Amino acid sequence: MPEPLRAKSGELTADEILDALREGRRVIVEAEMLGGVHEVSLRHDGTTFYCDTPTTLHKHPDEEGMRDCILKMGYARDE
Questions:
Q1: What residues have CB less than 8 Å from 8, skipping those under 6 apart?
Q2: What is the pTM of this model?
């Protein structure tokens, strides 16, 4: 399994995150939430995109849904 890509919120673009996910890499993003800094794990199993936060697991059936989530949650910087 490839080494996870680690970044802070806003460090990478949505395209850079999605490229890593398509390559089979997990992306770990440090994000401020719930009054602290937490790690969010983004991954793709070849069919479904996952966004695993400290409170919930979001599933997205396609890349467009994952891109919207990444941008809405502030994990990526504006492109």
A1: 29, 30
A2: 0.90
